[in-house]
Design goal:
Radius of gyration: 16 Å
Helix content: under 10%
Largest sheet: 7 strands, antiparallel
Strand content: 35-45%
Shape: globular
Order of helices and strands: EEEEHEEEEEEEEE
Number of helices: 1
Mean pLDDT: 83
Distance between the termini: 48 Å
């Protein structure tokens, strides 16, 4: 897929486990836009590199290194029905809204990058994901794809919305420039916090 050098900060992991009852707000749909990375389309059989400061639709690309950024892969390159993003050494973030008092669950699919152009030992391709509220501490966790095919993450990232504006951020840190691939990002309201 693509060679990259990875940098990413491991952020404090705090996952909210909740058994709250569903409310009508749960029917609101996906709070994340372009979670399948279908807009724009990558060239057939190809990819597009996005550098720090560029956007993939509503997603903002960032980096903490001069060689940072992310790569959008076509369905042919992912060998699946998904377009996906190699987060490599970059960060990929999107602002979204949820009503204060909501319990939000975020899921996505990921897979190991198995591009033959990458080094044989690509490390574990772990990466971090966090939700950043404007005034509170981030809520996040670390994830690691285990196979060469897209699969759902083993544990959703859940949080209680104490505010109504948030940023979702994926931060790659693959050691040899070959980061994990992510797609099908979904954030849904699954309940309400009860006083």
């Amino acid at each position: 897929m693509n060679k990259r050098t990875s940098v990413g900060a491991l952020l404090g992991a705090t996952v909210l486990a909740s058994t709250a009852a569903l409310t009508p707000a749960a029917a609101a749909g996906n709070l994340i836009k372009n979670g399948m990375f279908n807009d724009p389309k990558a060239p057939a059989g190809g990819y597009v590199v996005y550098e720090d400061g560029e956007n993939i639709g509503p997603w903002q690309v960032g980096s903490s290194t001069p060689h940072g950024g992310v790569t959008l892969y076509s369905q042919a390159l992912t060998q699946s029905s998904y377009q996906a993003v190699d987060i490599g050494p970059g960060t990929l973030s999107q602002d979204f809204e949820a009503d204060a008092g909501s319990i939000v669950s975020i899921t996505w699919k990921h897979e190991r990058n198995t591009d033959p152009a990458c080094a044989k030992d690509m490390g574990d391709q772990s990466y971090s994901v966090q939700v950043i509220p404007p005034t509170a501490n981030p809520v996040g966790d670390e994830y690691k794809p285990v196979g060469p095919h897209f699969s759902s993450i083993s544990r959703p990232l859940q949080f209680s919305a104490d505010e109504d504006h948030f940023t979702l951020e994926f931060a790659g840190r693959a050691p040899d420039g070959c980061g994990p691939l992510i797609t099908d990002v979904v954030a849904k309201v699954i309940g309400r916090v009860h006083p």
